[in-house]
Amino acid sequence: MSAFILWGITPSPYQLKMQALLDYAEQAWQRWPEQASRGQALMMALRLARAKRRGEVSKFSGLAQGEDEYPAVPFYTEDGRQFSYDSSGLARYLDQHPQRHGRPLVPAQSPRLAFLCRLIDEAFDEFGLYMVHHNRWVTSAATNVMGETTARELRKLLPPLVPRLVAKRMPRRQVRRLPYLMSVAPAGYEAGVSPGLTPPSRPGFPPTHGLLDAAWRQYLAAMESVLQHQPYLLGERFTLADASAYGQLSMNLVDGRAAELLQELAPVTFDWLRGIRDGRHVASAGALYASDALAPLVQAIRETFMPLMQQNHAAYRRASDEGETLFNEAAFDLGRALYPGELQGWPFRAVAKSFQAVVWRELCADWQGLARHEKDQLETQYGLHGSAFGGV
User: Fold this and answer.
1) In sequence order, what DSSP letters do the residues of 297-346 get, joined into one string?
2) Into how many domains does the chain fold?
3) Fewer CB within 10 A of the end CB, N or C, for the chain?
4) Using CA of residue 246, residue 251, residue 254, residue 256, what is the dihedral sign?
5) Of 158, 191, 207, at which residue does a domain stop?
6) CA-based diameter of the chain, in Å?
7) 76/11 same-domain check
8) Which helix (H) or strand (E) holds 6?
9) Cα separation of 320 and 323, whole Å?
10) Does residue 70 contact residue 49 with C-beta atoms inside 8 Å?
11) What is the mean pLDDT of residues 295-299?
């Protein structure tokens, strides 16, 4: 095939991230099933299902057996038969083929920059998802159109009339998933929508709307701090860090009220997101560097993502030592592997996530691989301390 096939839907922030990565690398791509024929879409769905069933879907960094799990979407393939997943892995895959593009997405020439790139990437992928999913289904409860969008993009796989059911059921499912994705409403919460679309509370779980609203505003203020001084997070051109921030934050560009707030609170970031959406990042070139303007964003990551990963890893290890074998959403639905935590003074309750334990272990290993002077520079400039990356 002459183009990458991205098997996914635009409501996914990881789909948006992959599209931006391939655009920057000037690689042609199509988004299936929407841009396929019905026959092509059905055949690809069967091949992907078979590959998943056989455990043949790959991840660039390798699967952590028993800890990684396949997502619902997106996946990517070049030949329609060999499938991979993981949006960050796509960036590393592209960097392994320099004949395709001469501007690495991960700044490997500088271990310090490479670490910052991965830290930002993972923070948006893991904690950023909670903020933007909350914005879509809570802040924009009455204004988002993701049910209709999902049904339209999946229609090649569905019998007649079924898209209407998808358009109704998909939003209800995503609202039910809010507590799993850290968004818990206070008791009696009302959003001016039907009961099935009203963000739920959960007995024994502290409300977290205030936590996620405050964190989102902190991240947006930090993005403004960077982008008012330089065109991209790590300097003059686009990297994986930008792709991850774009994928998550741009998800809300189509979400009505959340989009209005984004433009109001962070106008520079709002225009930056639209620029990447429209492909203006493709021509970016120039030096990469770690500027002081990045400090507020690293601070937000230190105060949210890092302590969340530390608490999740400790809970996962503790539950595993006690014989627990079920984690992630399946465990959450059954009330298993739960733990209490705190972020920025806000209490929360969550389920131990095995795939996030993998993320944190790998990030800690990256830190340990840095030279002493590189660690010292990161500590002096951004307050990143080695003690935060130990104990795994």
Assistant:
1) HHHHHHHTHHHHHHHHHHHHHHHHHTT----HHHHHHHT-SEEEEEETTE
2) 2
3) N
4) negative
5) 207
6) 62
7) yes
8) strand 4-7
9) 5
10) no
11) 99
Confirm whether 161 is domain-assigned: yes
* Mean pLDDT (whole number) for 123-151: 98
- 358: in domain: no
| Distance separating alpha carbons of residues 201 and 254, to the nearest angstrom | 26
Q: Is 383 helix (H, G, I), strand (E, B) or coil?
A: coil
> Burial code of 280-313, b = ≥16 C-beta within 10 A, e = fewer?
ebeebeeebebeebbbbbbebbbebbbbbbbbbb
CB pairs under 8 A, 24+ apart, for 280-285? 281/20, 281/23, 281/24, 281/232, 281/238, 281/242, 282/23, 282/24, 282/26, 282/238, 284/24, 284/231, 284/232, 284/236, 284/237, 284/238, 285/103, 285/236, 285/237
Host domain of residue 40:
4-95
Report the DSSP beta bridge partners of residue 232.
Answer: 235
Q: Mutual orientation of helices 372-382 and 111-123 as an angle, nearest 10°?
A: 50
Q: How far is CA 293 from the centre of its chain?
A: 23
Q: If DSSP codes are grouped into helix, strand and coil, which group holds residue 355?
A: helix
Residue with tokens 């790139």: 117
The candidate with the shortest Cα–Cα distance to 120, out of 264, 19, 249, is 249
pLDDT 10s digits, 32-46: 999 999 999 999 999
Is the pTM for the entire model greater than 0.90? Answer: yes
77 within some domain: yes
Measured CA angle at 26 (ends 21, 28), to 5 deg: 90
Q: What CATH number has the domain bearing residue 87?
A: 3.40.30
What's residue 68's pLDDT? 85
> Which of 164, 179, 207 finishes a domain?
207
Q: Are 7 and 76 in contact (CB under 8 A)?
A: yes
119 assigned to some structural domain: no
Is the model's pLDDT at 147 over the cut of 90? yes
Q: Indicate if the pLDDT at residue 1 is higher than 70.
A: no
173-189, pLDDT tens digit by residue?
Answer: 999 999 999 999 999 99
Alpha helix positions (H), the chain: 13-24, 38-53, 87-95, 111-123, 129-134, 146-154, 162-176, 209-227, 240-250, 257-265, 267-277, 295-303, 305-321, 328-334, 354-368, 372-382
SS3 7: strand
